[in-house]
DNA sequence: ACCATTTATGACTAAAATGACAAATAGGAC
DNA sequence: GTCCTATTTGTCATTTTAGTCATAAATGGT
């Protein structure tokens, strides 16, 4: 859990330290005091809530950083190829070559986009889509199906909640266009 | 009885180690010194009391009282049998029947104990142990291998970082004893 | 016994809290 | 616009608390 000092907040808000302390004392900004002699600390989440409530500009440090992409493909070559494209496009990319890693990275890395190979041995890609849509809390996650399987199978994944599908093989340009169309905000 | 070092407390409170030592020296935070050269230890209960007394935020690790158990087994019957035992013993139990769920639940449910079936089709249990020990941040996670495979395979998992192993089939009593021995604080 | 990591300590520097007071700002009334 | 007033914010000096650094010691693991 990250916390901020009154001085840090003063810099972020471009106000005097004295003012921040008064905000905290008056309860406008939620904080707590260290045992020592009462130095203030504010939880990052409370600070962000404070900024939002008062419609203050959000400092760059707290802007949601780079867009994250999780690449799920058991063929490392393919995964790396995708990763090159996404990384070059400015996304932070992580590769999962087995379903366990995929699950672990989905809930810890929290990507905005997941590319998913449907035809992984021993894995049911449909179940992954189902999980992401039913048991996973970030509904804004974009799922891009990448598969050598036929149109029918890819459509089935879309029906389950995937956002788009791309047949293998694909060109880098196709891939990039598809991803960027999914990630427009 | 679980104890904390000054460094751990520093991290939990997001404060410098030096400051924690001063809190202890001044008596604000109750602790005791090891015989060696005076390294500090603080009882978990004293730390929690300290947090409460000073209205400090309680770290996530100390939030939920209940101990969480993740059961990874593709055979739902077996998983449910384990779940019955752990639930009855007072643990909060969750079942993952495929590796993707297992990964997702490990990093979101954040169990203190994971039971792991080595012989799941299409999944390499060893990779899961490796992931948990190398790429997962909670090193205090206990891993209990449950497998019908031979002693040798189970030993291999232990070598990779699992904490204990139990051959299939097992009695409820064996299971419970093993789990509780892993979770003693 | 050895090593890497963590912790303790003192001295010092940096940062924060506080009160009193000055300056700036916002909103009304004219 | 000007004047007035209430509220908020900034400044300053001082005291207290927290962080940094270097070094020595202890701890944990192999």
From TrEMBL, chains A, B:
Record flagged with keyword Mitochondrion: no
Keyword Glycoprotein: no
SUPFAM superfamilies (UniProt xref): CheY-like (SSF52172), Putative DNA-binding domain (SSF46955)
Domain (Response regulatory): residue spans on this chain: 68-183
GO molecular function, one term: DNA binding
Database matches in InterPro entries: Bact_response_regulator, CheY-like_superfamily, DNA-bd_dom_put_sf, HTH_17, Sig_transdc_resp-reg_receiver, SinI_DNA-bd
Keywords: Phosphoprotein
Stored PROSITE patterns: RESPONSE_REGULATORY (PS50110)
Pfam family, one: Response_reg
Modified positions (4-aspartylphosphate) in chain numbering: 117
GO terms (BP aspect): phosphorelay signal transduction system
NCBIfam families linked to this entry: excise
UniProt protein name: Probable transcriptional regulatory protein silR
